[in-house]
Design goal:
Number of strands of chain B: 3
Largest sheet of chain A: 2 strands, antiparallel
Number of helices of chain A: 3
Keywords (chain A): Membrane, Transmembrane, Transmembrane helix
InterPro entries (chain A): Na_symporter_ssu
Number of domains of chain A: 1
Subcellular location (chain B): Membrane
Radius of gyration of chain A: 20 Å
Number of helices of chain B: 25
Structural class of chain A: mainly alpha
Largest interface: A-B, 46 and 48 residues
Oligomer: heterodimer
Protein name (chain B): SSS sodium solute transporter superfamily
Number of strands of chain A: 2
Helix content of chain A: over 70%
CATH topology of chain B: Sodium/glucose cotransporter
CATH class of chain B: Mainly Alpha
Strand order of the largest sheet of chain B: 2-1-3
Order of helices and strands of chain A: HHEEH
Protein name (chain A): RNA polymerase sigma-32 factor
Strand content of chain A: under 5%
Structural class of chain B: mainly alpha
Largest sheet of chain B: 3 strands, antiparallel
Chain lengths: 95, 608
């Protein structure tokens, strides 16, 4: 068995076994980013407020708009990553 | 079959249909604006607005009627991700979000942003932890999933009880809001207005269930977002010269901060009376701020009327994407709300506080007459009344000081058209938007409650052999019954119930979240564990709410009761975990079910 065949066999056998740990890892990464956007950055609001852009103190801006934009982007990013996982492991739905 | 074909047709033309609808709505607004110029009275314009939009929703509701179970409960699972996103956005944004959010930010300043972060960030949890898996499972309701995952009627029944506690107070508040808006703009009595609102809700949902609610919610989203954005865009154009309020209010924030100091210097306000708009933790302490953010987020990911919207997408992939679209559509309103608050605050600090009583802007009296603005302790109905009240208080300067002025927070959004001196048609538009927001949320909530009663109690527990026709008749009877009950409760103006709405988030977070998340992500979670977790988490939260609100209990760690879930949630997780480990693991059949819902491939689990 050459290296390529080995990898192919491993891939065939490992299909499902790897899929869930990877999905779980993606979940943990996404939740970590969520925690930073929802809580982490707002702990430093008074520090950020020293920076003022277009009249917005940065700490205020992050709570009023920045975090929200981050959440929207995060969900679309997560969806794309999960779709990649689904198709890589043959777990995607039939169209 | 014919029904299938027409709905295919509809799905492929959906973009064009809503484009025409949006264009038609814009033309209608312009037509009313023209009527106003020709001297048609405000009252007539208000009526036309409300009845035209209600007629559209009713039309969609009637066209979407159905006699198929799958159509009634999950819209046939054919709602494209983007449209489901719009429907979810209007399902989510209630009358209170539309009317009250900006006012909360006006009052609380930075601390009010806890609501903005909390009511958006929860969607990340929905997308990652819950929605795709529930979609794959293919249940019709949340208790349906709990019943299947935690084998039996016990988990299902507890689910129904929690759902009822979270959703019923919420729907009552929505019907109350429709009554308030309709009575304010149409001049009918509040009680009558409540029942007009009830009719508006029932025509949207009764004949077509989820299918009809979905397509009316999309239409309602378009009305509400246009109505929310137009007045503040025009106001920004007039105040700053640039029609992008979300960017331009930065400057305004600086002006507000400067005015806060100068009002104190001029002796118009005491420093202790003013909440500095930009300063964190002036109303909530840091612990309460973050506890509130967490409870609102987790509550979002647990509320049945939101989660069930993701049962309607064609695929698991679409369910995930649809959460992203939902949040994008919600974002448009939530990132505008702080701008509303800033523009209104500038107007009040600049042109109201420190103004001689004779020179107060006209809108003060417009809203004073309906009791929403108070000056020197009385409703600001006329200049004479206000002058007399201020004199009686010993205030002889004739200048309005900060402490003599109070404003209901709902006025911030409603009064913006008048503050900006815009024609009445814009105020009518705002009323139509508020109505759309309240109706769409009420529809979603009613469906969540009625479906739990008809599907979970009647079909699953009372008569599992019921025919399709019978199931759908029962579903409609439940819907009318719940709606009628909610309208009756709303018509009694129950102040207690209205203040309980904010509790729904904590109750849902503590009651549902651990059972849902562990049910999907932890195979070992057992029926006994989940039941104990739901009962203890929900029980502790309910106890805390009631004991602090009515029992005079000292809050633990100073946590205000809107964030009660901060105690119940971890308890729910801990109890579910501990009891699961102490009891027998789930059956192989349940394990197979969990395996199946974890992969998108292979069609909905329940259909097999």
């Amino acid at each position: 068995m050459n290296a390529g065949e080995k990898a192919a066999a491993k891939k065939a056998a490992g299909h499902h076994a790897d899929y869930w740990p990877r999905t779980r890892r993606l979940m943990l990464i996404t939740i970590a980013i969520w925690a930073v956007l929802g809580f982490g950055i707002h702990f430093f609001v008074t520090v950020f407020n020293d920076i003022v852009i277009l009249g917005f103190p940065l700490g205020f801006y992050l709570a009023a708009q920045g975090a929200l934009i981050g959440f929207v982007v995060l969900i679309f990013w997560f969806s794309r990553k999960q779709e990649e996982l689904d198709s890589r492991y043959g777990m995607a739905e039939d169209e | 079959m014919a029904e299938q074909d027409t709905s295919r047709d509809f799905t492929s033309n959906i973009g064009r249909i809503y484009l025409v609808y949006t264009g038609g709505f814009a033309a209608f607004v312009l037509f009313l604006a023209a009527l106003e110029q020709f001297g048609v009275s405000n009252q007539v314009i208000g009526y036309l607005f409300v009845f035209f939009t209600l007629a559209i929703y009713a039309g969609i509701g009637i066209l979407s009627r159905t006699m198929q179970v799958g159509e009634y409960y999950v819209a046939g699972r054919r709602v494209p991700a983007v449209y489901n996103g719009m429907a979810t956005a209007s399902d989510w944004m209630s009358g209170a979000s539309f009317v009250g959010m900006a006012g909360t930010l006006y009052v609380l300043g930075y601390d009010g942003l806890a609501f903005v972060i909390g009511w958006t960030g929860g969607y990340v949890l929905v997308a990652v932890l819950v929605a795709p898996y529930l979609r794959k499972f293919g249940a019709y309701t949340i208790p349906d999933f709990l019943g299947a995952r935690y084998g039996g009627h016990m988990a299902r029944t507890i689910g129904i009880l929690i759902l009822f506690c979270c959703s019923f107070t919420y729907v009552t508040a929505q019907i109350y809001a429709t009554g308030i808006i309709a009575s304010r703009f149409l001049g009918m009595s509040f009680e009558l207005a409540v029942f007009v609102g009830l009719l508006g809700i029932l025509v949207c949902s009764m004949l077509g269930g989820m299918r009809a609610v979905t397509w009316t919610q999309v239409a309602q989203y378009i009305v509400l977002i246009v109505a929310y954005l137009v007045p503040v865009i025009l106001l920004a154009q007039m105040t700053t010269g640039v029609p992008v309020p979300q960017v331009m209010y930065g400057e305004i924030l600086q002006e507000i901060t400067a005015l806060e100091t100068s009002l104190v210097e001029k002796g118009l306000a005491r420093a202790s009376e003013i909440t500095p708009h930009l300063q964190p933790y002036s109303s909530y302490d840091m612990l309460n701020f973050f506890a509130l953010v967490l409870c609102l987020m987790v509550g979002t990911a647990s509320l049945p009327h939101i989660l069930m919207r993701y049962f309607t997408t064609p695929s698991v992939k679409d369910a995930r994407r649809s959460v992203g679209w939902s949040l994008l559509f919600i974002f448009f309103l939530y990132f505008t709300a702080p701008a509303y608050a800033a523009f209104a605050k500038l107007e009040i600090y600049q042109n109201v506080i420190g103004a001689p009583l004779e020179e107060l802007p006209k809108w003060i009296y417009t809203y004073g007459q309906i009791g929403l603005v108070k000056i020197c302790g009385i409703e600001a109905t006329t200049l004479e009344a206000v002058r007399a009240a201020c004199l009686a208080k010993g205030d002889t300067t004739g200048i309005l000081s900060f402490s003599d002025f109070s404003i209901n927070r709902d006025v911030i959004v409603i009064a913006t058209p008048e503050i900006a001196g815009l024609p009445y048609v814009v105020a009518g538009l705002v009323a139509a938007g508020g109505l759309a927001a309240a109706l769409s949320t009420a529809d979603g909530l009613l469906l969540a409650i009625a479906n739990a009663l008809s599907h979970d109690i009647y079909y699953r527990m009372v008569d599992p052999k019921a025919s399709t026709k019978r199931r759908l008749i029962i579903a409609r009877i439940m819907l009318v019954g719940v709606a009628g009950l909610a309208a009756w409760v709303a018509s009694t103006k129950p102040s207690d119930i209205l203040s309980m709405v904010a509790w729904a988030f904590s109750l849902a977070a503590a009651g549902f979240f651990p059972a849902l998340v562990l049910g999907i992500w932890w195979k070992r979670a057992s029926a006994a564990g989940a039941i104990a977790g739901m009962v203890s988490g929900f029980g502790l939260t309910l106890f805390y709410l009631i004991a602090t609100q009515y029992g005079g209990m000292t809050p633990w760690l100073g946590i205000q009761n809107i964030s009660a879930g901060i105690f119940g949630m971890p308890l729910g997780f801990a109890v579910t975990w501990a009891v699961s480990l102490m009891t027998a693991p789930p059956s192989p059949k349940t394990e197979a079910m969990i395996e199946a819902i974890r992969v998108p491939k292979g069609g909905t689990y329940m259909d097999k």
